[in-house]
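Predict the 3D structure for this chain.
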Amino acid sequence: MNGRGRPLRSGSAGEFGRGLHTIPLPIDDTSLISVQAAAQARRCHGGLRRQGREGIRPAGRDEGDDANVPGFRVHITGSSIVGAGYGLAAWYVGDMHPMTCTLGAGLCSVAGMMPDLDSGPGIPLRESVAFAAAVVPMLMIHRFQAMGLPLEAIILAGAAIYLGIRFGMTWLLKHYSYHRGMFHSLPSAAIAGLITFLAFGSEEPLRRYFVSSAVVLGFLTHLVLDEIWSVKMGMFGPKFKKSFGTALKFYGPVLWPNMLTYALALILAALAAGDAAWTEKLATVKQQMQQATRTFQQQYPSQQWQYRR
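Done. Predicted structure below.
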């Protein structure tokens, strides 16, 4: 009841709860303050819930920078355009096989999301890891066959690689990476290309170089777009944000990620160099055998044998 002895109407400041029966209480300054505090608490709780659904803002991005950095759509669009041009140029100028050109264009498009794997939970991490977990085992099918593995072993190895990338890599990225770290660097672009080169075990060296360079090109497209967005044109010339230079870099501010990145790059480079030398040697031997076969067929043409009954 109010101060005049009349009951409160539904929806007034004195009732407690929503959808429940009205409990008439006398209104004074203390009750009004309590109701206002409860409403403020509900609004704060709702804001926290929305923040939890939307995810935590990636480290390294300021409150005012979100509108001035290239988002997921910009990165995937830019790398897709570059990948399509790279594939068409390889097909038209380099006489590359159309399927190889299509594969290179697709990998270049997806590689445009790879540097943002350190941006925390979101679309780049989810989509890139899922795509890598599905594609890497397929790229290694030819290498598994060259090892002489049976079909069952190939299936089990592919499943193990998928689980390792899908869950193990996701866990490592969520716990041991920070935004604009060494993932946004030139050594990481080289690492992405070296991993692709080792996974794609084609017998033709030119195809391996083309596919791995497509991944590096997509990776670099992301870094270049980040640097372009870090420059803002003002009235008196260009203005550089504090994020300028954090994408196209050779090292970061923390020591151990730099050491780990360069150690991994050196190990992969050594493995790729040895594998490339072996693959080129096999390709040379294969060409020599084909040439010898054609020469033998020209010198000793096959004779038609006639059998008598």
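The mean pLDDT is 76.
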